[in-house]
Amino acid sequence: MHDVMRKRLWRKLETLPDEQLYQVLDFIEFLEAKYAPGRAPAPSGLQRFAERLEDRMRLREVAPRAMSGTMKVIGTAGRVLDTLTETGQGIVEGLTGAAATRRSSSPAPGAASTSRE
Predict the structure, then answer these.
(1) Which end of the chain has fewer CB within 10 Å, C or N?
(2) CA-CA distance, 12 to 5, in Å (whole number)?
(3) Residue 3 host element (H or E)
């Protein structure tokens, strides 16, 4: 999808109330099942959990405002987990880089010392 289409769709979606957004989602899933040449990428674990929870709440006819609030909390939790993951990866990369620098700057084992006293 090109950027102009993405922005146009996003702009239209932002104006709709939550109830109609669920109708749009249902229609998109119908179109995907009927016309999409492949399957959409699988969601992450937390995203999959959130989607299943949202679907169950829709089946139980929970008010869209309550669902929206719940999904916002889960979305915030997802962003926190993403930030923690990125931070952990940065720490690991930093430690790996420091270890590599230390290895390259230390003399080879068995090398004679060249310092004079």
Answers:
(1) C
(2) 11
(3) helix 3-14
The span from the CA of 116 to the CA of 105, in Å, is: 20
Using DSSP, state whether 99 is helix, strand or coil. Answer: helix
At residue 114, the 3 state secondary structure works out as coil
Distance CA 89, CA 43 (A): 21
pLDDT (tens digit, 9 = 90+) per residue, 9-40? 999 999 999 889 889 999 999 999 999 888 88
Cα 110 from Cα 117, distance rounded (Å): 20
- Segment 72-99 shows an average pLDDT of 85
DSSP 42-98: PPPHHHHHHHHHHHHHHHTT--HHHHHHHHHHHHHHHHHHHHHHHHHHHHHHHHHHH
The overall pTM is greater than 0.70: no
Q: Output the six-digit token pair for 90.
A: 């940065």
